[in-house]
Amino acid sequence: MSVKDPVCGGQAHENTPFKAEFRGKKYLFCSSKCLAQFDKNPSQYSKKGK
Questions:
Q1: For the domain that residue 24 is a member of, what is the CATH number?
Q2: Does the residue 33 lie in any domain?
Q3: 8 Å CB contact between 14 and 25
Q4: Residue 50 lies in a domain
Q5: Structurally, how many domains does the chain consist of?
């Protein structure tokens, strides 16, 4: 199973090592680069933006 990477829009697989949690929601990433970008400003990439 895969989900959409919130940073680049690519596919992130459920077994990815690149994961983050923000305000109780888990996010999966396709690469360490996308995870690092998310970590800089998670509210920019969260669906609610809050």
A1: 2.30.170
A2: yes
A3: no
A4: no
A5: 1
In tens, the pLDDT along 10-25 reads 999 999 999 999 999 9
3-state secondary structure at position 33: helix
Continuous segment of H or E residues that includes residue 45: helix 42-45
Domain carrying residue 34: 2-45
Please tell me the predicted confidence (pLDDT) of residue 3.
94
**Residue 48: alpha-carbon gap to chain centroid:** 13
Name the residue type at position 22.
F
Given a contact cutoff of 8 angstroms between Cβ atoms, the answer to whether 2 and 14 are in contact is: yes
Instruction: Give the C-alpha separation, 46 to 6, whole Å.
Output: 7
